[in-house]
Amino acid sequence: MDIKNKTVLVIGGWGLVGSAVCRKLMEEQPRRIVVTSLQQSEAMEAVEALRTEFPKASRNFFIPWWGNIFLRHELKDVSRDQILENPTQRAMLVDDIVDEMTQEVLERTSVYQLMTKYKPDIVLDCINSATAIAYQDIFQVSRDVRRNLMAARRGTADALVESVERLLVTQYIPQLIRHVQVMYRSMRAVGTKLYLKIGTSGTGGMGLNIPYTHSEERPSSVLLSKSSVAGAQTLLLFLMGRTPDSPITKEIKPAAAIAWKRIGYGEIRKRGKAIELVDCPPDRGITLTDKLTLKPEQQVWRSLNQPLRSVFIDTGENGTFSRSEFEAISSAGQMEFVTPEEIAEAAIFEIKGGNTGHDIINALDNAAMPPTYRAGFILENAVRELRRLEEKHHTKSVAFEILGPPRLSKLLYEAHLLELAYESMTAVRQTAARDIVRKVEALIRENADLRSRIVSIGIPILLSDGKTLLRGTDIKIPPYRGENDLPITNTSINTWAQAGWVDLRVKNFELWKNRIKSIMHATEAIPTTDTSSRYFRTRLYWNEFKEIDPGKLVAWIFSEEEKGQRMKA
User: Fold this and answer.
1) N or C terminus of the chain: which is more exposed, having fewer CB within 10 Å?
2) What is the average pLDDT score of the chain?
3) Shortest CA distance to 25 belongs to which of 120, 132, 94, 99?
């Protein structure tokens, strides 16, 4: 796509790759570039550096924005440690991760606020999402919960609630899913045309034998978590790229160390703080006996009251390395390295429609095994055998609620009721909705076997009065989420009926009539002389409307009405 005169959002624009991307974008003459970072100082520093390098750009060309894109807007400038220490804010974080993805939840996120403010045409996501999520270290949090559970069994449960809440907000997959949901819905809301992610392999391109770990465990669980999250995000983006109304979705995944930002001499800092020099003379050494105390009460070392200073190479988000460390990881056969400029060049080339061969989403599309001709060819045999067995055993195979979702079973059984009552789509089209309701409700009241087959799979039946519900042992909708009693309102009834109840109210069968009218109208509009491959759902497909096929009807609803159609082979 053409970048000229487009608004480009660079998430993580202060970082190593983000900075290189911003500079490379200038060759394409975008309308403006929104540069984001976690900290205000970082975003302002990045923008000032770009304004200095590109003085001809207008003052409002580079726009700084800062905050944590994984949090709600209200908390975007609060550190995660502060949030976890604050019970009220911690509860907010739990709600934002585990609550259903409603419009309210979406609109309070920092991502949605950012997107709706600047409405970017292109989003370049350069932050290391996998590191941000995986380095919360769910393993240590889990160990804390286990320790507090053991204490609770002994009668001391004071710390248990907090540790469990910390575990809830540290679970990797719920956080990642919510993040991708928010990104997708926010970009769809503002009409973003293209999303490109700079991802990670998590191990700098190395395997399970990677010698660089964060603990004595090799490879460390935290490091493997980073790769797991990175892989999960790639598969979620793979799905987003297969969603018809999503932006074009791409991912470039460097499989090497990324370097470098600058080389210099000075304070060596870790997590924003200078490393303090301390000393432990031999006469203050500890004697190793029965145990080693990791955090002793008595301090045996002494501070030298000065920071560690040395020659360093700054590799951006990956940290500051010594010369020897850099030589070790960049040596042939180790991580080696790729420059941020090369990544930026590949990113811009992909945005413009080029094929670098490095788009992971495209690679997955081409490597994933698609539906096959053979499967399509023998489909009719399977359907024919199913129909033969239905006739032999005098039954109809409609839904078992094993495939899911409950809405599928609900729709199939509603279509089946129409099939039993009227046999043809033409007859349904010609009958008033109230007459349809009287007939299908009579079927439900009189046919105990039919009624049983529906409620036994967890699909309740809402009778035409809108107040009487027939149910079995389980109800799939609403799902049980710890609360046994749920308030009933008109809104909740409509929501539940739409999601997974056979709904015998008149307004629902008005909807079914309109569906059938739409199908017949679209089919009748196909010229009878057109026998080409252009059309799929023809009169022949619908058997001249002489029958009602629940499977075909529901497939049409999912594809056309609910826009759930597959877009790639």
Assistant:
1) C
2) 93
3) 120
320 vs 195, more confident: 195
**313 phi/psi in degrees, rounded to 5:** -125, 125
Contact 462, 501 (CB under 8 A): yes
Q: What is the largest CA-CA distance in the chain?
A: 100
User: Tell me, what's the pLDDT at 443?
Assistant: 97
Q: Residues 213-235: pLDDT tens digits?
A: 666 567 788 888 899 999 999 99
- Main-chain dihedrals φ then ψ at residue 64, nearest 5 degrees: -85, 145
User: Taking the domains of the chain in order of start, what are their residue ranges?
Assistant: 7-77+108-135+172-256+337-367, 262-318, 375-561
d(CA 86, CA 28): 45
pTM for this predicted structure: 0.87
Tell me which fold the domain 7-77+108-135+172-256+337-367 belongs to: Rossmann fold (3.40.50)
User: What is the 3 state secondary structure string of 380-432?
Assistant: HHHHHHHHHHHHHHCCCCCCCCCCCCHHHHHHHHHHHHHHHHHCCHHHHHCCC
Secondary structure (3-state) at 98: helix
Query: Is 90 exceeded by the pLDDT of residue 568?
Result: no
Q: Which residue, among 5, 17, 16, 113, has the nearest Cα to 65 in the 3D structure?
A: 113
User: What would the two tokens of residue 415 be?
Assistant: 């279509």
For residue 350, the surrounding DSSP H or E stretch is helix 340-351
Neighbouring-strand partners of residue 37: 66
Name the CA radius of gyration of the chain, rounded: 30
Helix (H, G, I), strand (E, B) or coil at 538: coil
| Residue 60 confidence (pLDDT) above 90 | yes
Which residue has better confidence, 118 or 135?
A: 118
Token output for 484? 């046994």
C-alpha to C-alpha distance for 69 and 50, rounded to whole angstroms: 22
pLDDT tens, residue by residue, 396-446: 999 999 987 899 999 999 999 999 999 899 999 999 999 999 999 999 999
Give the pairing type, strands 269-270 and 7-11: unpaired
Residue indicated by tokens 């392999």: 201
> Residue 508 CA to chain centroid, in angstroms?
32
Backbone angles phi, psi at 266, to 5 degrees: 165, -160
Which pair of structure tokens corresponds to residue 254? 């460097």
Q: In DSSP terms, which residues pair with 278 in a beta bridge?
A: 303
